Amino acid sequence: MVRTAWDAQNNELTKLINTLTEEQLAREIAPGRNTGVYLLGHLIAVSDALLPLLGWGELLYPEMEELFIKTPDKSGQTFPTVGELKLRLEAVNAKLNAQLDAATAEELLDRHMAVKPEDFATQPHRNKLNVIISRTVHMANHIGQMLLLK
Amino acid sequence: MVRTAWDAQNNELTKLINTLTEEQLAREIAPGRNTGVYLLGHLIAVSDALLPLLGWGELLYPEMEELFIKTPDKSGQTFPTVGELKLRLEAVNAKLNAQLDAATAEELLDRHMAVKPEDFATQPHRNKLNVIISRTVHMANHIGQMLLLK
Asked: How distant is the alpha carbon of residue B110 from its chain centre?
């Protein structure tokens, strides 16, 4: 069920960015707020960061953390093009989906990489599934905002 | 874990509306879009609707469905005051939380009231827990928008 919710948000994001023009994506979601391009990059960077956090490999685009997580929008960064971001979203999702397809329930209930084994012993909710729930909610948060670009 | 995610969204909503002034809540989240008051009423109405959907009782505020779900914002409706909406949010959450506290895992994996037993036999994901996941995502969607009122 969590996987379905995660997939649904990803499908909604992909559908949304394919509906919006590059010009719409370049706009702010509301006056003075983040642009669509920044939020798209932010969501890709956060999904990419799931790979090491869930123990599923290295970041595909390590430079995106600085650009879209650590640095706020409109700080003078140069963003990849929308076309390039769409390819990156696809690549990150393909890698995550392959891992999710292969993951057993047992693995998903195991600790994620940011929690130490001794802490996990007393905090068993700090598992991979919980990270996916939290990232699904995070994505929903920003998709709600990006819908304002329509 | 789903319960924690649900609670976290509700806590964020409560915190957010207590941070915003009545004037901020009366504003549109972006030019021409829904107002904060409408979205708050919408979220309360959707949570209230969980009671019958999960088999946990009647709607507390049946008139809110027409006002905040079936009718779009700015259609000339008269909304309850922000103070009244806050009380209603509290009442709906108190009732839902009491039911969630009492619900067993087995009950949460049982069908919700909008699915027939014969359909549930082949579609076991149409259970109560899945409804809570989907409403958590829905709330995150609108909280992301309401954050723009700050």
From this structure: 21
pLDDT computed for residue A87 by the predictor: 98
As a whole number, mean pLDDT of residues B58-86 equals 97
Q: Do B144 and A148 touch (CB under 8 A)?
A: no
- Whole-number Å distance between alpha carbons of A39 and A147: 11
Tell me if B130 and A1 make a contact (CB, 8 A cut-off).
yes
8 Å CB contact of B30 and A148: yes
Cβ partners under 8 Å of residue B42, min gap 6:
B34, B68, B69, B142
**Cross-strand pairs, A127:** A111
Mean pLDDT, residues B14-38 taken together: 98
What's the pTM?
Answer: 0.96
Instruction: With beta carbons less than 8 A apart as the criterion, state whether B146 and B39 touch.
Output: yes
Q: How many angstroms separate the Cα of B95 from the Cα of each of A119, B8, B56, B83, B89?
A: 34, 17, 9, 19, 10
| Cβ-Cβ contacts under 8 Å for B109 (sequence gap 6 or more) | B124, B127, B128, B129
Residue of B130, B133, B145 lying closest to A144 (CB–CB): B145
Which among B9, B33, B143 is the nearest to A148, CB-wise? B33
Mean of the per-residue pLDDT values of chain A:
97
- For chain A, what percent of residues have pLDDT higher than 70? 100
Give the pLDDT score at B124.
96
Least CA distance to A138: which residue of chain B? B140
Please calculate the CA angle A113-A130-B52 and round it to the nearest 5 degrees.
Answer: 180
Cβ-defined contact of A137 to B137 (cutoff 8 Å): yes
- Confidence band (pLDDT; 50, 70, 90) for B26? very high
Number of alpha helices (DSSP H) and beta strands (DSSP E) in chain A: 9, 0
